[in-house]
Design goal:
Layout lengths: L2 H43 L6 H25 L5 H20 L11 H12 L2 H20 L18 H78 L2 H4 L2 H27 L9 E4 H13 L6 E5 L6 E4 L1 H17 L3 E9 L2 E8 L6 H5 L17 H12 L3 E6 L5 E8 H4 L26
Parallel strand pairs: 2-4
Antiparallel strand pairs: 1-3, 4-5, 5-7, 6-7
Length: 456
């Protein structure tokens, strides 16, 4: 995997850790509210004297710590590492241990909340950190069983069986609270992990697609280099034949020879285009033009290579400067090529600009796409042309070029027959200044008709 993909994976991991830190912040607020309610009920409701000043200081420290985490989380946007989660969880364990020390130690039924800290550590942290949290909570439990602030309980609170009724009630409350918090927060943590796994899977797929495109580019460039020599030889031979009396005196042979020369020139043009797209014969940088001029050039170039009975072209209602390159032109031509192959009688191209997005829509009246092909659309070598191996790269390349520009590709069936391919590109990726586009203007058809729709 290349360094860019590794960087993306790193950012996905950090994004998940930020979400988990947000869950810990929310859990800490629940802890503050729960402790305030419990301390007030026990001290004022049941008349059990608690060291309120010390417990209030612990609550204040929890609040200040949480506010600091919130400031760090929202303002600085610094990356959150597993070590930060570990320290945050240790702070919660320390606060709970101090509160239990001040309220009866191991005899406090809320000591079972240590289980919540251990389970959260097992889910959120690395194994070594999780085991460290387990060791710390176990040590705190053992220490609190021996050392704690004595908590005098009224004799009336004991049941005939000898168990303090307040203790039994506290155990039940602690069990219910721990269970509810575990279910709520573990579900949210698992949801974060599932979203992370989905993003990682998507990025791995994108990295695989990019590697596939690189291999295709290397193959095409190598083939273009290899074809250069034999085509040059053929060009020299055809030039010699054109001066031989056997060809010059026979009109039919001369016409065939000229046709061969034209086809050879076309092959040279294709090879040169491949090398230019690879950046080997010129700097592969986008050029400044306008949307109208660029699309008119694309349509003119494409129509010169295809004989379509009826071609409808509806340009955009406004024109503005854009940066265009060979990849953008090839993306549009690939979609038009696919439409012309399945529907030689009718192809339509429509452009629209709406809400900061350029929509390029190509329609045909062919047989359409099978549902199985639509489900795998955009994967290499997936095509409706099963009788021709090696097909299916057109939409694969279209999808990846659009995705590299921040856009998307949608394929929809048409009624009664045909299909529609819509390429949506954000203007911010192609417009030179997307925030200061001129007012809509009339865009002429590349063949001179002012009407937005022209028949071929």
């Amino acid at each position: 995997m290349n360094p860019t993909s590794e960087s993306l994976l790193f950012r996905v991991e950090r994004s998940t850790e930020r979400q988990n830190m947000q869950l810990l912040i929310q859990l800490r607020w629940f802890a503050v509210i729960g402790q305030v309610v419990t301390i007030s009920l026990v001290h004022y409701g049941f008349g059990i004297a608690l060291p309120l000043p010390g417990m209030a200081l612990v609550l204040m420290a929890i609040v200040l710590t949480n506010l600091g985490y919130i400031y760090w989380y929202r303002s600085h946007r610094r990356p959150i590492s597993p070590r930060n989660l570990f320290l945050a969880l240790l702070a919660d364990v320390l606060a709970l241990a101090i509160q239990l020390y001040l309220s009866g130690g191991a005899g406090n039924p809320f000591i079972y909340l240590f289980l919540l800290q251990g389970i959260l550590g097992a889910v959120l942290l690395r194994p070594i950190h999780a085991w460290f949290v387990v060791a710390i909570t176990s040590m705190c439990t053992l220490v609190l069983a021996v050392v704690h602030w004595p908590l005098p309980l009224p004799l009336a609170t004991h049941s005939p069986e000898g168990l303090p009724s307040l203790y039994v009630g506290g155990v039940l409350i602690s069990f219910g609270l721990t269970t509810v918090l575990l279910v709520v927060f573990l579900r949210r943590i698992v949801s974060n992990l599932r979203r992370r796994d989905a993003r990682l899977a998507d990025m791995r797929q994108r990295a695989s697609d990019e590697e596939h495109i690189v291999r295709l580019g290397l193959l095409a460039t190598g083939a273009a280099h290899e074809l250069g020599t034999p085509m040059s030889t053929m060009s020299v031979i055809l030039g010699d034949w054109a001066r031989m009396p056997a060809f010059t005196q026979d009109p039919d042979l001369l016409a065939d020879l000229q046709e061969m020369q034209q086809q050879l020139l076309r092959c040279k043009s294709i090879v040169s285009s491949v090398l230019m797209s690879a950046g080997e014969t010129r700097a592969d940088a986008p050029r400044a033009t306008t949307l109208s001029a660029f699309m008119d050039g694309v349509v003119t170039h494409w129509r010169a290579r295809h004989c379509i009975e009826h071609f409808d072209y509806a340009p955009a209602s406004e024109d503005f400067p854009i940066l265009a390159d060979t990849a953008l032109q090839q993306m549009i031509c690939n979609v038009l090529d696919n439409a012309a192959e399945v529907s030689p009688g009718h192809v339509a191209l429509q452009l629209a600009v709406h809400n900061g997005t350029l929509s390029i829509i190509v329609r045909d009246k062919g047989p359409g796409f099978a549902p199985a092909v639509l489900r795998q659309m955009g994967q290499p070598h997936v095509s409706t042309k099963t009788e021709r191996p090696g097909r299916g790269l057109g939409l694969f390349l279209v999808l990846n070029v659009a995705r590299s520009l921040g856009g998307r590709v949608q394929v929809r069936p048409q009624s009664p027959t045909g299909s529609e391919v819509e390429i949506s590109l954000p203007l911010s990726s192609i417009a030179i200044d997307p925030d200061s586009r001129p007012a809509p203007v009339t865009t002429n058809h590349p063949h001179g008709q002012p009407s937005p729709t022209a028949a071929g």
